Amino acid sequence: MTTAPSAAQSVQQPAPTTDPTPAPSLLRAMFQRGTPMLWVPSGYFAMALTYMMLTSVTSIMFKNLGMDNGQAAQYASYLILAYTIKPLFAPFVEMYRTKKFFVLCAQLIVGVGFAAVALAMSLPDYMVIMVFLFGVLSLVGATQDIASDGVYVTALDSKTQSLFCGIQSLSWNIGPIVASGGMVYLSGWLHTHYFHHQAGVFGPEWIDSWRIIFFIVAGITIVTALWHLRVMPEGAKAENAPKSVAEAAFILRDSFITFFQKRDVWLMVGFAFVFRLSIGLLEKIGPFFMVDPVAKGGLGLSNEMLGLIYGTYGLIAVLLGSLLGGIFVARRGLQKTLFTLCCAVNIPNVTFLLMSIYQPDNLVVICAGVAIEKFFFGFGSVGFMIYLMQQLAPGKYTTTHYAFGTGLMGLCMMVTGVVSGHLQQLLGYVHYFWLVMAATIPSFLVTWFAPFHHQE
Fold this sequence. Notes:
This protein is mostly helical. The protein has helices spanning 26-30, 40-64, 69-78, 81-84, 86-93, 99-120, 126-155, 158-163, 165-194, 207-231, 245-259, 265-274, 277-283, 285-291, 303-332, 334-346, 350-358, 363-392, 398-438, 440-448. Keywords: Membrane, Transmembrane, Transmembrane helix, Transport.
């Protein structure tokens, strides 16, 4: 997720106290006619819903359908690739038609694609078809991100962008609540209460409930596209948008050259890639650990409980941690706090090690373990993003170089996700979570030696 001649009205300044006409409140300004409030929340929610369904929820679905942990984590992690490399094809999206055109096309294709996934689940070789469709949808979803960010950046002036920044972030975070929380919960409820299948048994019986889930997501996405057809502005071309394929290729090549000419660039590349190494190993396996039977070393939770814990308590903890982490950095400065933030990201992973050793059946303890890990992840991750903005990105292609940094992080999450399931099967949960703790060491090293060449 990133981030848009302005048709939106600027926020009016407060009137003097002697003026009998009251000034419009911030809330009224945000909801006046033609406001971005009509399309910013829905646009960023649609982006997040697509991303979470493809890169997170699919892993749970694969697990439910009977895949082992290695395959489920591997296939779901491959879908991160398109989002990782989207800076490579972003300049070409700038060249043609309007950004709204790409948003609408992407959302319609995503909606039809999810419906096609649901229909394909009735076919004999549904898994091959489904994985292929997910791969196509990940490319379309990444394009949706590029175009939606482009509308936001080019259709709004800087003051309105600032005004809606919090709305943008909040709307994106509703996506994980609906996808990882609501849809996973609903899949479990349908499986046990509507289709009357046994919750803890994985296999083809889960097709019935997941087919409904994909039809629901398809409907939401298509309705969102129709809504944006009516209310979303066209989005202007950026001033530096390439005018030809050759120019786009030159800009992309030049951005790579200047990126690797930065001072201490390899230390910064190492930081961007390794900072979340342990999180990448934990991201897919954590939910698998929750739903695997106790006999296999898991906690034996249902999809309903998994959706509730990760989609509500876990996400609330992340948001609260991010807020407090931002305040912490703002007060003390990034250079003084970066190593502390790295500790916050990595050390609380020990909660999963402890849960794998003791396998608690108390839901309060399990919720607390997940919430602690997620809170400190949110708290510490703020430092990672600020470092990319302030130290890695500055230069001739600030936005592109920032995207390179987040792309390196995405590449780490993909690589670790691909191998995580296979490693867990080889080691078992207890030894695997020991490996996760060992993987924090490279994060500590790159953070300790991370260079600071720009003033905060």
